[in-house]
Amino acid sequence: MSKVALNNESKIYVAGHGGMVGSAIVRCLKSRGFSNLVMRTHAELDLCNQAAVNTFFAQERPDAVVLAAAKVGGIYANNIYPAEFIFQNLLVECNVVHAAHMNDCQHLLFLGSSCIYPKLAEQPMTESALLTGTLESTNEPYAVAKIAGIKLCESYNRQYGRNYRSVMPTNLYGENDNFHPENSHVIPAMMRRFHEAKLNGDSEVIVWGTGTPMREFLYVDDMASASAHVLLLGDDVYRANTDAMLSHINVGTGVDCTIRELAETMQRVVGFSGRLVFDPTKPDGTPRKLMDVSRLRKLGWQYSTDLETGLRKTYEWFLENVEGLRQV
């Protein structure tokens, strides 16, 4: 098995390069001098098709893989499409990780989600909270798929000596996010709602839930920076802060806010002058989700973009692309 460390000449396959996180990781790797990047659109390579994935890996034989491809969505989408969320994510993970191993790809970074932790996990959530309690019901199928991805990587590491690492991001937002009015996460959905309310001259914006849940948000370019950092860490530093049975690493800011505070910040960023109305008949989801990021800090990385700055950058991008988004 190849044990060669990654360098600027290494061939890195970024799965999901067209998505918010994948595109940010591509930008980050290019800025660090990595030019031998392999990318395929969904039309070119269906990651749910095992035969196609096997053929791709046999032909390209990448030195490393960043597995950022996934079926994702907010509370509404997870409630309506639970079968697709668990089935498609399991297929992608199994196909890519196994094909990487079979073609002697030693390095892989799997991107998970903070929803892997129990609904009532002690806050802030440490990596050791995994599998210690009941998951949040609204996104349990997706969470189970992501947990399976972590264990898949750990199993190939234990049995075959692979260097497959996992990062668990908190709630992400930024350029290339999904701004669908129903299937998006809280920040893009809220941004679009506030923006359209401003254009329409509405007197109020209705926000789902009570506004009291606590959430942590990370700007996607910070997530890309953390992903590259973990992928490129030397084995000695990485293994000193992880072990075979607890290999995943939390990625976040370590700072959270209420949904009400998020809405007030969004209102300020977008420039909506009406009032906020909270709808308590809509689900709140998990009461609080804050990541313990002490392990990542020990590995030498911490975030650099605060929430309001990140929202302003995201809104600038949104305004440049809003005409296309109106057709979504």
From TrEMBL:
- Does Isomerase show up as a keyword for this record? yes
Q: Please indicate which residues carry the site annotation Important for catalytic activity.
A: S113, C115
Q: Does the keyword Membrane apply?
A: no
Alphabetized UniProt keyword annotations: Isomerase, Multifunctional enzyme, NADP, Oxidoreductase
Annotated positions binding NADP(+)? 16-22, 111-114, 146, 169-172, 185
The entry marks the following residues as binding substrate, namely: R193, W208, R215, D284
Gene3D superfamilies with a match to the protein in the record: NAD(P)-binding Rossmann-like Domain (3.40.50.720), UDP-galactose 4-epimerase, domain 1 (3.90.25.10)
Which residues constitute the catalytic centre? Answer: Y142 (proton donor/acceptor)
Q: What is its EC number?
A: 1.1.1.271
Spell out the family assignment given in the record's similarity comment. Answer: Belongs to the NAD(P)-dependent epimerase/dehydratase family. Fucose synthase subfamily.
* Chain's role: Catalyzes the two-step NADP-dependent conversion of GDP-4-dehydro-6-deoxy-D-mannose to GDP-fucose, involving an epimerase and a reductase reaction.
The record's section on HAMAP family has: GDP_fucose_synth (MF_00956)
What is the protein name stated in its UniProt record? GDP-L-fucose synthase
Q: Which organism is the protein's source?
A: Limnobacter parvus
